[in-house]
Amino acid sequence: MSDNNMSRIKNKQNNQQKKKKNNKGKKKKSWFKRIFLTLIGLFLLALVAGGSLFAYYASSAPELTEEDLLGSFSSDLLDSNGDVFYTLGAETRDFAEADEYPEVMKEAMTAIEDQNFYNHFGIDPIGIGRAAFGYVTNLGEISGGGSTITQQLVKLAVFSTARSDQTLKRKAQEAWLAIKLERQLSKEQILTLYMNKIPMAGNVYGISTASEEYYGKPVEELELHEAALFAGMAQAPNRYNPYVNPEEALNRRNVVLNVMRDNGDITAEEAETAKAIPIEEGLVERSDSSLNSQMFDSYLVEVLEEVEEKTGLNPATAGLTIQTNIDMDAQQAAFDIANSEEYVNFPDDELQTAISLVDVNTGQVKALVGGRKQEGQLLTNRTTNTDRQTGSTIKPLTTYGPAIEYNKFSTYHQLVDEEWSYPDGTSLRNYDGNYVGQLSMREALVDSRNVPTARLFAEEVDRADATEFVENLGLDTSLMSKEGGLVDSNAISGTASPLQMASAYSAFANGGSYTEPYTVSKVTTQDGQEIDLTPETNQAMSDYTAYMITDMLKDVATNYNSSVGIPGVPQAGKTGTTNYTSVEIEEHNLPSDAVPDSWYIGYTSNYSLSVWTGYDKKYEEGHWLSNNDGTRQLPRDIYQALMSQVSEGLDNSDWTKPSSVSEVSVEDGSDPAQLPGPNTPESEIVTELFVAGTEPSEISTTYGEDLTAPTGLSAQFDEESNEIAINWDEYTLENEDEDVTYLLSINGEEISLDETEYTVSEPDSGNVQISLSVQAYGNTGPAATTSVTVPEPEEEEPEEEPDVVPEEPAEEEEENSDEDVEDTPDDPEENSDNPSESEDTEDNNSNNNESNNDDNSSNPPSDDSNTNTDQDEE
Asked: Taking a C-beta distance cutoff of 8 angstroms, is the pair 399, 406 a contact?
């Protein structure tokens, strides 16, 4: 083939390869173009869909009126008697004109709340996008904002601030109204309305009012550091309240100053000068009205949260009539107990407490104290906090309640207290460091022993049952552990608020019904609409569970009677203590007996009262509780002081055992439970509670069989031998290894024998009473009796003297003979019989007595023996 041909072929091949490359390039560009156009299309589609959805939502937005922006209506709070005890809202709001607000206040507010305020048209598109993204990623819940000051004003004027209302629809309506408002009002008007309307902690609304309340001066005189504080409080007024949380308020104020500096509103030097001013500087003392409202501040916090959460209405502006459940006498008593030294000896003002009083029959919250020695309004309410462990107060809820409810265990159910570790190998100990061996469920709960409780929870209680039981009582199991559910350690401690615990225990007090605790029964709107906020009551457990738990917890209250006892008031309760870890003890150099939390939850047939004590900063020097200084007993002291007052004049009846519960006497130590045998000592019999239908039927033989009277007892007197022969049948026991002893009683004199016969020699004449019983297993059975008559002995006639014919002596001899006979009575011939008979009889009696003594010598004296035996039996 010529070179030309070769060249021609190569060129052809090269051309073909170029065409292929060009085709591939075109295909790639085509795919990129398609993807790009698709994305553009999807974006436009989403934009159209989003715009359509926005338009749809906006079309249903409410009207924004001048009254909404400028006016507000105060709300009246009624106590349980229907009397107004607090008015919330308009009376603590001073409106200031735009020119009254200093420039530094306006700069601080826009710097921290809305830096683009003077440039946007009512909404921040980037913020809206962020909110939309949060809506998608959080399954329909708005997680983050980007709201402008205009939007925030709309929210305060028209919408609810409840988190449940943070929906995409609400956001769209809020944005639409903000856009409309920007067309109607100037930026200065909008900012002024906003600063006049925002809440500033407690019952204070608007910065103008706050300036008077906090610093005692008109708003136009505010200085840089003061303006920065108020601007920072807008985000979370209660959290950044300088009276309540000065450290957090200081940090927030300084953040505002830094932003103003970075924004160019102030110089770095001005910022540093303002930051150097103490947060407390210039603050005035609270007014008398603030001090008075402090008494029910914790209750007020819960009322406001409850109304907003359940109705979506703002109590501060909506003009509501709120029917609360507060008992003002109980609230005052609880406040006085927590904030004075009249009832309880508190070690210092830093120690905190949480007191929750609940009506067990309705679920109504009657009194709340969320802290002591606090200043300010709408402060931290520790009765609803869940950041402290419950200690052993959780045991009836997670362990013993489910064991009775689902397993139908009795209060006698036997457990074992011995060295034991959790299934994961973590060791566990009791409060005293000891183990007591076998014990009943009642004993384990009353003595608050950790090991048998944890074993019961881990080995015998189904985890699903425990979860259901706890959740039926209003507790959130997702908070119980890092894993988000019940774990082994929840047998002896858990996470729940003091108010939740008081309500959960209410179900034990009322027979098993649970009602979510509530501070508000009814809300009446300004137009007369009534909103019933009474929650439903549900049967959380069987009546047998409620009664049996109560019966055991009554023993706890009895054990602590000196500190919680109230004459004439039956009650039940449970203590609880948490511990520092060994690492915490070492790291913070804590005493070995120090604990961070102490609880007592007790209840009567009327009230359930939960008391927690501890320190907020539990690692600081001296911020622990101890038995040495009595601080661990403080919850019981608080409980007794309050419960005794609220129980006065009430029918404090004891609990009535329902038909679903049986009270049964069982032999202590039997496992499973057995009924006492006929010979079980009284000291070994305990009375416990069983779910009807699960009572034990087997009779214990630990202390032997049912001994009966021996048979064949007979007694015969043999006149010739002068003896009583007593005989009886041999007694046979079912347990052949057990020895039988016969207890023979002859005219009250007792003799113990191993044989089945006995002989009484030379018995006294008359009727001889004989009884015989069997002794075995340490007990004495019933006696068989008989009697025999021993006749009086017959008198023996003297022997006749033989006829002797004496010789007749002379008269003189005859006289001498008479004298000799008279003077010599011991003639051996004449009295030979009677003296010897007397001596023989004496000897024989002596021998008989010795013989009898020998028989008796093998047995201890009967009286002493019986006395000791009775004492042992008792």
From this structure: no
